[in-house]
Amino acid sequence: MNEKEKQLTGKERVLKAMRCEDVDRVPWVPFVGCHGGELISVTADKYLKSKDYIVSGLEKAIELYKPDGISVMFDLQIEAEILGCGLMWAEDNPPAVTTHPLVEGVELSSLKIPKPTDGRIPVVTEAIKEMRKKHPDVALYGLITGPFTLSLHLAGTELFIKMFDDPDYVHDLMKFTTQVSNAMSDYYISAGADVIAVVDPMTSQIGPEDFRRFVTPYMMENFDKIRNRGASSSFFVCGHAQQNIEAMAECKPNNISIDENIALDYVRDVCLKQDISFGGNLQLTATLLLGSEEDVQRNALQCMDTGGERGFILAPGCDLPYATPPANLQAVTQIVHDDYQREVLRTMEMTETTKELLDMSEYGQIDKVVVDIITLDSESCAPCQYMVESVELVAPQFEGIVKWREHKIKDAESLTFMTSLMVRNIPTICIDGQITFVSRIPPRDELIAAIQKRINEKMKLRILQKQGKVYVLGGECEGCIETKNNVRRAVQELGTDMEIVFLTDEKDLQKFGVLHTPAVVVEKREVKSMGNVPSVEVIKEWIKDIT
Fold this sequence. Notes:
Elements: H1 10-18, H2 35-39, H3 44-47, H4 51-65, E1 69-73, H5 78-82, E2 87-88, E3 96-97, H6 121-134, E4 139-145, H7 147-155, H8 158-165, H9 167-191, E5 195-199, H10 208-214, H11 216-228, E6 232-236, H12 245-250, E7 255-257, H13 264-272, E8 277-282, H14 284-289, H15 293-307, E9 312-316, H16 326-337, H17 339-348, E10 369-375, H18 382-394, E11 402-408, H19 412-420, E12 428-431, E13 434-438, H20 444-465, E14 468-473, H21 478-494, E15 499-503, H22 506-511, E16 519-524, H23 536-545
Parallel strand pairs: 1-4, 4-5, 5-6, 6-7, 7-8, 8-9, 10-11, 14-15
Antiparallel strand pairs: 2-3, 10-12, 12-13, 14-16
């Protein structure tokens, strides 16, 4: 068994991908952040202040999402809070910086490097230690605020003006915030973090020239520090920062992580040339938060196909929104862990180009019950094979009544059929066009019961459709009485509940065109249409048949 075929732990998978080495599959790292609070019904403001809440939220996230790696904390205000920035807390978001000490008269020289016991640092380090013990096989990300973003927290937007008017001041500030970043990295690595993610979203607001001048030397120092401690590093950026990707790569991180605002294929090509791994870029709001499970899986698969097998880590572009539906993240987990589901989804992508669907409004109206099995291919797909076999084994019990067939969606015609039936999962069993068993091999008795139920429904429908009346026309003559008795006996011997109507009025005889009695008229009722609006032309043909 070679290294790629070996079953890796999540931690091994992430770290090997960080080094652009072969892995058995794409690593999955959801940046949980305050979403962990939602998982345990705790507001973000309480969650981000409590080690116990954080650990509980992460434990739940690991249970639900089966990640290879996970961020222990995603709060870019931890350092800023310690250094004197005011925060505004929210119940469903991380806090926001509201005041900037360097704008309010605080001197840069008076600011001190945070100690490991300051502010909420112990909350994070203790959470890392506990998670390290409980989940040794999951890669733990320690997230720190990047030097440029932390400088903006401290100096506000005046920093952009000072880049032109007082560049030396900016460099002094960046030196200080880099020292802060180095200290925070040290604390988190000592606690047990495997990856230090330097999150510096505000670098998206400057161009490559200013980036290389004011950011590159300090980020290089930060990444060197992390590397020398034996940990891996990731450079996080969000927003429209494509112009800086090459400059970011020059800082020599192990990984660059982006959001959906940046083209993943562009980042891939830039990073892999320099043996730098890359991650992202699941759509946070439009898809993970607001989209359907199918939307999420399509987005995840698109990212995986674009990212490829070398150096790519699937992740959201930033921390997950608090109210992200867990089912959407579990849908990502399914695609990541199940190559069969990925193949199904790739095949189903063809439905986007299906131009014409079949009219299934009257499907299943023939006398026999039709069982359709929608599969990828029962010859190559184990779940499909077992579902087909389940039908094949019970079909002989309904010989002459049930017909079954497999539809392999690798075939365009079968794909159109599947789409027309509104089937979205493979494999699926439909009975007379109704989705009955989805991605589940039915037990023998359950399948038999489902088929028998449809047979009974169909029989009842046929009985109703074939109902009619028998009219016996005539008075009280001997022949009329004998005819009435014969009709009653015939209905009784057939066991039918057909209605018998006796008519004696001359006007009724004339309506039926009867000249002599006794007379018998049989009226047959035939249902021509159900559940749809027939066209005028079709109705005319029905009328012609009886006129």
